[in-house]
From TrEMBL:
Entries under Gene3D superfamilies matching the protein: alpha/beta hydrolase
Stored Pfam families: Abhydrolase_2
InterPro entries in the cross-refs: AB_hydrolase_fold (IPR029058), LYPA1-2/EST-like (IPR050565), PLipase/COase/thioEstase (IPR003140)
GO BP terms: antibiotic biosynthetic process; monocarboxylic acid biosynthetic process
PANTHER family in the cross-refs: LYSOPHOSPHOLIPASE-RELATED, PHOSPHOLIPASE_CARBOXYLESTERASE_THIOESTERASE DOMAIN-CONTAINING PROTEIN
One cellular-component annotation, GO: cytoplasm
Family membership noted in the UniProt record: Belongs to the AB hydrolase superfamily. AB hydrolase 2 family.
Protein name (record): Phospholipase/carboxylesterase/thioesterase domain-containing protein
Domain of life: Eukaryota
A single MF term (Gene Ontology): carboxylic ester hydrolase activity
Domain Phospholipase/carboxylesterase/thioesterase: 6-165
SUPFAM superfamilies: alpha/beta-Hydrolases (SSF53474)
Length: 277
């Protein structure tokens, strides 16, 4: 089954930057776009008003069976539990493979629209969408040859994070930054490769893994524990990705959303700071 077309919010003026943002499980691109773009900063402005040169791309996952809910639903990959993210991890791999491939294709297309300026494209998502955006970034070496403008993650986690932490911290492993980046990227690429498409072990460019990240998570999030968000941040820090973390309480959706307006202030400041660089 093909992925639905993305929801696109065109820039108000000349196009200079793009954000690709992924929805959570049970939502879709148009719904996430409506909620995200209608939220405001403390200046009483939406992000489209604050960033009029930006194109906003909200992809939708395809429909697949959910083991938890026992029905077909819009979800990037299947997962049997968020209380124990290591449970039945093999269920996640097919969806991770399909969704990461789709998002990397989308990312390449948006970079091409900006004449190859990957530093003007930001990638991110909420909840399961954050999980896919992290996986796409970590699988991007070999396809994307320069850093993105930034990664934006909200209320999410990193599937297979436990295995990665064990990989980079195993006894006797004295690895420099480049070797840690390569080791982690190869782990993610190998995990979703099928038997006919194993990635080559050539000296592919790792520059995309210098992309800075902003991760935001509610301390009172009842759906994705703050401990999972912190674990995702640790994994990125293990490979020397610059990570800015915002933790908060009292957001809408029982805490499983971005705190308004403070969270959107943080997003805007992160974007503006890294656009200046």
């Amino acid at each position: 089954m093909a992925f639905p077309p993305p929801k696109i919010q065109d820039p108000r003026t000349e196009h200079t930057h793009t954000a690709i943002l992924l929805h959570g499980r049970g939502s879709d691109g148009p719904e996430f776009a409506e909620d995200f773009l209608s939220s405001i900063t403390s200046q009483q402005k939406s992000l489209t008003e604050s960033l009029p040169n930006w194109r906003w791309v909200f992809p939708s996952s395809r429909t697949r069976h959910s083991t938890v809910f026992k029905e077909e639903m819009c979800t990037w990959f299947d997962a049997s539990s968020l209380d124990d993210i290591q449970k039945d991890q093999e269920l996640q791999i097919e969806g991770l493979r399909e969704s990461v491939h789709y998002i990397l294709n989308t990312l390449e297309a948006e970079i091409k629209l900006l004449d190859g300026r990957s530093d003007r494209v930001f990638l991110g998502g909420i909840s399961q969408g954050m999980a896919i955006s992290l996986w796409a970034l970590l699988c991007a070496p070999g396809r994307i040859t320069a850093p993105l403008g930034g990664l934006l993650g909200f209320c999410g986690w990193l599937p297979f994070a436990h295995q990665v932490e064990h990989l980079v911290r195993r006894p006797g492993a004295q690895l420099d930054s480049i070797h840690r980046k390569r080791l982690v990227s190869e782990f993610f690429r190998d995990t979703i490769a099928d038997s006919t498409s194993r990635p080559e072990r050539d000296a592919y460019d790792l520059s995309v893994l210098n992309t800075p990240a902003f991760l935001s998570h509610g301390l009172d999030d009842p759906h994705v524990s703050i401990t999972l968000g912190r674990q995702a941040a640790r994994v990125l820090q293990e490979i020397d990705i610059q990570v800015e973390v915002q933790e908060f309480t009292g957001a809408d959706a029982d805490g499983h959303w971005i705190k308004e307006p403070e969270g959107f202030d943080h997003i805007l400041r992160f974007i503006e700071r890294h656009c200046e660089q």
